[in-house]
Write a structure and sequence with these properties.
With 163 residues, the protein is of the alpha/beta class. The protein is built from four helices and eight strands. Residues 6-150 form the Phosphoribosyltransferase domain.
């Protein structure tokens, strides 16, 4: 059915990030840097960094999607880029919420591979059409994914939050 969605709840998110962290540990990879692709990768990267007890977390901002199923011709970096001196010679775990087309992850991995000694990719979800195959994947799906942090519409100054 076209309307079927993969729904990630906050509770499942917690379990998913712990399971992803366990995959990283089981592989023997010891990232010196956790690199979050914003915005979707912020919360997974933070949870994984906490689980790894890694305080060396950086963000990289890439714009590709401009709306639901609307995107630019190709992903582009938004400033500021992380200082490459932090990446030089480091092992980097790149974290995002989903590898949809995989183009964003491909761009970030190519950027990291110019500086880091090794980079690996961890995502909550990977879709079959992704041009990059991630190293650590919690779940594979081709459904539209509803994430807990984006399930509700954006708030405005006039939005009222009732307790």
């Amino acid at each position: 059915m076209a309307d079927e969605r993969e729904v990630l709840t906050w509770e499942r998110f917690g379990s998913a990030t712990r399971e992803l962290t366990q995959m990283v540990l089981d592989s023997g990879f010891e990232p010196e840097i956790v690199l979050s692709i914003t915005r979707g990768g912020l919360l997974p990267a933070g949870a994984i960094a906490y689980a790894l007890d890694n305080k060396n977390i950086h963000i990289i901002n890439v714009e590709f999607y401009t709306g639901v199923d609307q995107r630019l011709p190709e992903p582009v970096f938004l400033p500021p880029l992380p200082a490459t001196t932090y990446l030089d010679g480091a092992t980097v775990l790149i974290v995002d919420d989903v590898a949809d087309t995989g183009e964003t992850l491909k761009l970030v991995r190519e950027f990291c591979d110019k500086h880091a000694v090794e980079s690996r990719v961890a995502v909550l979800y990977e879709k079959s059409r992704s041009v990059i195959k991630c190293d650590y994947v919690w779940k594979r799906t081709d459904q539209w994914i509803t994430f807990p942090w984006s399930a509700l519409p954006p708030m405005t100054a006039s939005t009222r939050v009732d307790n």
